[in-house]
Hints:
By secondary structure, the chain is an alpha/beta fold. The chain has 7 helices and 18 strands.
Amino acid sequence: xxxxxxxxxxxxxxxxxxxxxxxxxxxxxxxxxxxxxxxxxxxxxxxxxxxxxxxxxxxxxxxxxxxxxxxxxxxxxxxxxxxxxxxxxxxxxxxxxxxxxxxxxxxxxxxxxxxxxxxxxxxxxxxxxxxxxxxxxxxxxxxxxxxxxxxxxxxxxxxxxxxxxxxxxxxxxxxxxxxxxxxxxxxxxxxxxxxxxxxxxxxxxxxxxxxxxxxxxxxxxxxxxxxxxxxxxxxxxxxxxxxxxxxxxxxxxxxxxxxxxxxxxxxxxxxxxxxxxxxxxxxxxxxxxxxxxxxxxxxxxxxxxxxxxxxxxxxxxxxxxxxxxxxxxxxxxxxxxx
Length: 338
């Protein structure tokens, strides 16, 4: 038996390692050729100090206070040279991946389908060469290479970790490098490659009500999170506000409804910014967030959308005087035309 450890680095790269029972995390990383920061390896210097964001572990009592104070330990700071895990864990490493000699991981697979689900959105599905090797945290992205070029675009998984197929919601940008290739050249059976996973925008342990805010194809990482939440059967309230520009931009509604059926305390609404829309809820996501949802700040907010939307939500929270316990957000912008 082994536990799965996700190491997240300051540059956004994430690598997964297996840690054996009673094996120290530092040793497990070294076994995977990842050189985490270290000096003494005896719990004396504190060089290997990281933060455990999720999971259970034991640090023993062989380290000294100068290496890790009681206050730091209470904040889930850890010494990887002393840390033994008893569950899967997520560990934030306070350096970039290159410092630890972590090389980008390239993987590939065949296109299963390319569906233009609206004028603005393409759903791409790939069957990986080795589905078991596709590891990521729900909400993370990869750099997907445009076949026949050395250029890539960043896309978040809309599928959950461990699925036999991976999927992405891709903004259909007129003349865009990736969307142009998908709509004109791409076809089932063609191979594509990607590098990752990357990103600090991912689902953390659910300890309080959760608000999910998605703008356009920013729905992709939110769907991945919802799939995992549905599998976990969380007891906390979860509320999604999904905003788009025009009626035709609304996608994956059936999938959201199916997820709602699996999550007893999940509620959601969609809204359309176009004032000429026939949708029952017009305007922006901030207009459809109530004080009840915000729960006086005792909530976790995950937000993915274009930069103006992200800034609007941040301004809205400031005006309301609400400081969420956790506020994770990711901005995206459509790629320029090729």
